[in-house]
Amino acid sequence: MRDPEHDLSQTGAVRGDERASPPAANPRRGQPNRLSSATLVGRERELSDLVAGLATTPAVAVIEGDSGIGKTRLIDELRTHPAYAGRRFAVGRCRSIGEPFPLGPVVESLRRHGEALQIAALSPVAGAVRPLLPELSSVLPPLPPGLDDHVAERHRVFRGLVEVIEALGEMVLVLEDLHWADEQTVEFIDYLVSDPPPRLGLVLTYRGAEVAPPTRTVLGRVPAEVGQVQIGLSSLTPPQTRLLASAILDTDTLSEEFATYLWERTAGLPFAIEELLALLQARGSLAQHGSQWIRRALDELDVPDRIRDTVLERAGRLSPAARTVAEAAAVLQTAQPPHVLQASADCGGDVLLDALEEALRSGLLFEDGANLGFRHPLAAQAVYDAIPGPRRRQIHSRAAAALQELGDPAIGQIAHHLRETGRSAAWAEAAERAADQAMTLRNDGQAVRLLADVLREADLDAEIRARLAVKLGQAAVEAIHAAPDVTGLLASVLEEPLPAPARGELRLSLSVLLSQVGGDPVLRRQLYADAVDDLGHRPDLQAWAMVGLGIPTVPGVEPAELLHWLHRSLEIVPRIEDPVSRVFMWGKAAMVLVALGDPAWRHLVDRMEEQTGGSPQRRGEVNAYDSVGLEACYSGHHVVAERLLSAGLRGAAACESHRLELRVRRSVALLDYSRGRWEGLDEQVRVLVDELDGYASGRLVVEAVAGALALARGDLDTAMAGLTAVVRRAEELNDLDVLPVPAAALIRLQVARGEVTEAAGVGEDVLRGAESMGIWVPALRAVPPYVEALCTAGRVDEARAMMARVTAAVEGLEGLLAPAVFAHSGGHLAAAAADWADAARLFSAAADHYRRFDFPYEAAQAAEQAACCHHELGDAAAKDLMSTALAAYESLGAEWDMSRASRLGRRIGVPVPGRHRGGRYGYGSQLSPRERQVAELAAAGLTDQQIARELHLSVKTVEKHVSAAKRKLETPTRVALAVRLSEVEPPA
Question: What is the pTM of this model?
Answer without folding.
Answer: 0.62
